Amino acid sequence: MTTTTNTFSEPGDDRLAERARDHLWMHFTRHSVYYEGSGHVPVIVRGEGAYIWDDQGNRYLDGLAGLFVVQAGHGRKELAAAAAKQAEELAFFPVWSYAHPRAIELAERLAHYAPGDLNRVFFTTGGGEAVESAWKLAKQYFKLTGKPTKHKVISRAIAYHGTPQGALSITGIPPAKVPFEPLVPGGIKVPNTDFYRAPEEYRHDEKAFGLWAAERIREAIEFEGADSVAAVFIEPVQNSGGCFPPPPGYLERVREICDEYDVLLVADETITAFGRIGDMFAMSRFGVTPDIITCAKGMTSGYAPMGAMIASERLFEPFKHDTNTFLHGYTWGGHPVGAAVALANLDLFEREGILEHVRENEGAFRRTLERLNDLPIVGDVRGAGFFWAVELVKDKTTRETFTEDEAERLLRGFLSKALFDAGLYCRADDRGEPVIQVSPPLIVDQQHFDEIEGILRDVLTRAWALL
Length: 467
Ligand SMILES: Cc1ncc(COP(=O)(O)O)c(C=O)c1O
Fold this sequence. Notes:
This protein has 467 residues and is α/β, with parallel strands linked by helices. It is 39% helix and 15% strand.
């Protein structure tokens, strides 16, 4: 171990970046940038409302709410106070055969918000753990109810569902999986709802495309054998690939197919819950009730880690009897501080009308971003709520996309840094086709929409000139 003097951060302290480079193993990060290139680790030291500041004193609009997390915005003293108060009263107790007031209150509250009979709340610390829990529950539920061979999971191309090996199996992004193979067997993939890149014959009919995509799920169930398939995992609006909303009728048809083959429908709402799409759960907004919801991120607006799997009463039923036990859990699941913060965050949502604000402003956000359609590099603007993607293309008319090499140069070589340098923290992503994603705190308004559009316009114009 090498030691460094323990200095606290001061604005302008260059050593923080250096110390990060030397000791902090950043997630999903290509560290060579800091060793072989001239990269400087960005160090964020403070947040207030929709803005964050780095250690050099530069201000950025947080166009990604951290990581689709900070719904209520930064610097909310009441959420910090809720954490401190709970830590003083009862900092920790597990929910392993015991309960504590905040876990009970939060479970009841989430059950109240969740659609249909999704009444049973199993706490985790994040989205990947919630996804993992849901797959395990699906398998055990069928074992307990006389269908022990049902174990496979169907999910969609390019979808990200987390990093535990089960969740990674459900994930549809090959480069994120290959280094860790073999993964949990039984992860089957079907097409997602990318309407912009729909098969030619469906490009002008969103409803027909949605039904086509839903039928691919039926086809996969039949191909694998319904007696082997336990669940279908979908995000109501898929993040990876760039904010694919469900075409009209799609979720309804998927629900019917799942019912027909006795397959559980799991809505992975790790991103879409807690106001991102204008409702506590996006599935409520879309009017379809899944069997399980997985959620995390926005539940606490990021002031503490917290996740949950919310299951229907039907799935809990076998666990009310005999020695049946869901032998699964996490030390930090239902953490009192996380639960207290989540409750305070949900109070804030209600008091400030956060859901209403998103619903009232999503149209304005869309219209502002759609102004970018006049740029030659912008192929598509899509999304819902406060969750938007701008797909970049080489040729607008043919929708031709970039080669791998060009995408690498465009996104990593230019856009990510140029956007950040211009004052916008957001995501330039090429897990599917190249997209820029914006998903800011849910408190932003027209002034922020304009700022986002202005920075995107400037940087995308420069990117086009460089191509
Ligand atoms: C849809 C979805 N599922 C699961 C996860 C994994 O969540 P976590 O990083 O909290 O484990 C994510 C993370 O972004 C996600 O977007």
